[in-house]
Amino acid sequence: MLSKLLDTQEQQLTLLLSLLEKENQSLVQDDMSQLQAVTKQKHELLDAIQQTDQALAQHAEQLKTDSDLAKRVEVLQSLLSECQQHNEVNGALVNESQENVEQLRRVVDQLRFEDTSTYDKDGKKHSSQRSGRGFKA
Predict the structure, then answer these.
(1) Which of 13, 16, 35, 104 could form a disulfide with 26 if both were Cys (CB 3.0 to 4.6 A apart)?
(2) pLDDT in single tens digits along all 137 residues of the chain
(3) Is-contact 39 30, C-beta < 8 A?
């Protein structure tokens, strides 16, 4: 039974690694529909991994004392570490994307402000926050 749990955990972590690679591709390609699908799969898989972790935690002592099982746990820890590295890269891509969106928002706001500029009779530029209100036709 314990061996089966370790097999399940390895399959889950391998699948998570694959999903993280797909997530990375979606972020790089700006493919939001694929990103949403991958994110949903990832969250479901993380729930399953957590359940397997809880089942394995009940056998923590045996996993430490049995040398064959301990080696398998090391392999799983290595896989988990690789998943964490991929997740950090994806997180950095998300942060970069958010910064780009914020920068674009600032540019749009600035352009909108420039559109409200008016000129006086001497040709001097003035910013108007009224956007056309208060003028008589």
Answers:
(1) 35
(2) 899 999 999 999 999 999 999 999 999 999 999 999 999 999 999 999 999 999 999 999 999 999 999 999 999 999 999 999 999 999 999 999 899 889 989 888 887 776 566 667 777 766 555 445 555 55
(3) no
Indicate the residue type of 114: E
Q: How many CB atoms lie within 10 A of CB 63?
A: 18
